[in-house]
Write a structure and sequence with these properties.
The chain is of the alpha+beta class. It contains 20 helices and ten strands.
């Protein structure tokens, strides 16, 4: 029988055992393909070049993340496959086959698995490409044409990303077989198993891990005026390393300490599974850490999507506080502007305030430089808030204090806004508040406003130009174009010196639609990460079941009740899933807290809901894992 035929028969016979690996790889390919298909479908052309470019950047970033994940997932999956086959390969050597021929057989068999995963992923991706787009755009609430045609270019690009990476690890496995001895192959399935870890090393890892993780948690929630981006990056690195050290140090140390307590160990048949957890921890802790980090990413991705949705809605509401705004040096335009607007529309609310436009050279706001600055008199800002029904917290403002009136950011790296010193007209002021209430609507997007006491406003007046702002909201937004044209016609009849500018907010504007796409993609990333983490965990436990088969068969022959063994399996896997969930849950408080701090929103409820969703997903994976483990171990 030829080598190709033998390899194909092995592939066909082992496909059932490695179905979880093939499906997991196929799912990753499916997601990557569908993101590429959206990118090249032209569905977002109607949103304009700016939104289209933003969406392309987002998809490129997501593709990079998926590519990195695919790299590590393929690495893990091929290592699991190789470890499972090495013992069988050792038997082939006793049958007279050389390492080189066995390596080629492994190469062909693993390549067939990779091709099966690629074909399945692309085929399923093509079938559900329309559904993927429809779901994504439905979540985004973006009105574009949905393309149900699978693209050839995205398929080629996806295959070009996946297959070379996969083949790198196939070649790596081939070289490992060629260079391995018979003894190593026969004992490969038992390497690193049933090895109690050194307590001294565990203590060192525990101390370092707690310190690293604690530092990461601190940086995640620490406020900063200049280094928030550095803190966020350092927090990600330190939390990831801390989780790795926690699973490699503290958790096995706790289990080994519990095992030394005989009263604890010999109650409720804990001896059947506690030692198994301890002895296998050296082999499994890297997988547990990887799964924990992926689940943490899933919770953070969902929180990001929800936070961006809420932030987007607030920004749209902020920008549409007033539909029309006029800036002029004249203080008598209100009647004329009202007349022009009311020719086509009904005014529902309005406000007027005098501001002082200052040159950028007159203000030093530290590192947060702006091209345009304006000063507001405190009493008039307070009166405007009362007239429009907006919140205004400060009762009085001292002469050496200022309030910054800023716009809503989608996300800000400036997380500490206390104690900021602002120099205006040669005098230093302490910023006591940063408010994003839309007192001046869209103008707050392009001008940096500071409110000072009335006395200070009078002192600063000679340094700048006083400007009057007239702000109006209308009832019939469908008449926006006609109302704008009527207003422009009136303004055109004024002398040039009296008219400084006009703002008109189109309610049909789609400049921020890329944000809507972004938060829907975050929700998909949540599903991808949770599915990936569950697949890795299931794959690992599925493989462990085969390795534990001999031990459980011995216990069955010794007279152990199968129901008792099933309970010990449930306890062992419950401990594995439980410690992953516990570390993820605690870490998510800090990661989501850091996100909430940068987006100036409360995400406690979102964090609780996302962790709850992960919990139920873990319960599902746990039930499937218990059944698969018991069947492979010969207990079912």
């Amino acid at each position: 029988m030829g080598m190709i035929k033998v390899s194909f028969l092995n592939f066909k016979n082992s496909l059932k055992n490695y179905l979880s690996m093939v499906l997991s790889l196929a799912f990753t390919i499916l997601v990557l393909y569908n993101f590429q298909n959206i990118r090249y479908s032209g569905a977002f052309e109607v949103l304009g070049s700016r939104n289209r470019d933003y969406v392309a950047i987002i998809i490129n970033v997501i593709s990079f993340i998926l590519g990195c994940f695919m790299f590590f997932f393929i690495w893990y999956a091929t290592n699991v496959f190789l470890a499972r086959r090495k013992k069988e390969i050792g038997v082939y050597i006793f049958m007279g086959l050389s390492n080189d021929k066995i390596g080629k057989m492994y190469f062909l068999e693993t390549t067939l698995l990779g091709v099966a995963a690629l074909f399945s992923g692309l085929m399923l991706g093509g079938l559900c490409s329309g559904l993927f787009q429809m779901t994504l755009l439905a979540i985004s609430d973006v009105a574009v044409e949905i393309r149900f045609r699978p693209g050839i270019k995205p398929m080629i690009l996806t295959a070009a990303i996946y297959f070379p990476v996969y083949m790198v690890f196939v070649v790596k496995g081939y070289r490992s077989i060629v260079k391995s001895s018979v003894l190593n192959m026969l004992s490969a399935a038992k390497q690193n198993e049933y090895v109690k870890m050194n307590s001294g090393i565990l203590i060192i890892k525990t101390v370092i891990g707690i310190h690293v993780l604690g530092t990461g948690y601190y940086l995640a929630v620490a406020k900063s005026q200049t280094g928030a981006m550095k803190n966020a990056f350092a927090a990600v690195v330190l939390v990831t390393a801390g989780v790795y050290l926690l699973f490699g140090g503290l958790i096995p140390f706790v289990f080994q300490t519990l095992a030394e307590n005989k009263r604890f160990l010999y109650r409720k048949q804990r001896v059947l599974w506690i030692n198994s957890v301890i002895f296998r921890m050296k082999k499994n802790y890297r997988t547990y850490a990887m799964v924990c980090v992926l689940m943490l990413c899933s919770v953070t991705a969902l929180a990001t999507g929800v936070a961006m949705k809420g932030r987007y809605d607030n920004i749209i509401q902020f920008e549409n506080t007033y539909m029309f705004q006029v800036l002029s040096s004249r203080d008598d335009l209100d009647t004329k502007v009202r007349g022009a607007i009311e020719k086509c529309n009904e005014i529902t609310s309005s406000s007027r305030i005098q501001i002082l436009s200052l040159p950028a050279s007159a203000i030093n706001s530290g590192k947060y430089y702006s091209n345009r600055y304006a000063i507001l008199p405190f009493s008039r800002l307070k009166q405007l808030a009362e007239d429009t029904g907006m919140e205004f917290k400060t009762d009085q403002l001292e002469d050496d204090k200022v309030i910054q009136v800023s716009h809503l950011y989608l996300m800000s790296m400036l997380t500490d806004k206390t104690g900021i010193t602002v120099e205006i007209g040669g005098k230093k002021y302490t910023q006591v508040e940063d408010t994003s209430n839309p007192y001046l609507g869209y103008l707050q997007e392009s001008i940096s406003f500071y409110a000072v006491s009335d006395r200070e406003y009078e002192r600063l007046c000679p340094m700048g130009t006083e400007v009057y702002t007239y702000n109006y909201q209308v009832k019939n937004k469908e008449m926006f174009a006609q109302t704008r044209d009527s207003l422009d016609e009136m303004l055109a009849g004024l002398d040039k010196d009296s008219n400084m500018g006009r703002v008109a907010i189109d309610p049909e504007s789609n400049e921020l639609d890329w944000v809507k796409v972004m938060y829907s993609i975050c929700i998909f990333m949540f599903l991808v990460f949770i599915a990936a983490s569950g697949s890795i965990m299931f794959m690992k436990i599925y493989n462990d079941g085969f390795e534990e088969k001999e031990r459980y068969q011995v216990m069955v022959r010794m007279g152990y009740d199968r129901e008792l063994l099933k309970k010990s399996i449930m306890a062992e896997l419950g401990a594995a899933y439980g410690m992953i969930f516990a570390v993820m849950g605690i870490s998510s408080v800090f990661s989501v807290g850091a996100l909430a701090k940068m987006m100036f929103t409360n995400l406690v409820t979102v964090n609780a809901v996302s962790v709850t969703i992960v919990f139920f997903m873990l319960v599902l994976w746990y039930i499937l894992s218990v059944k698969a483990y018991g069947r492979n171990a010969g207990v079912e």
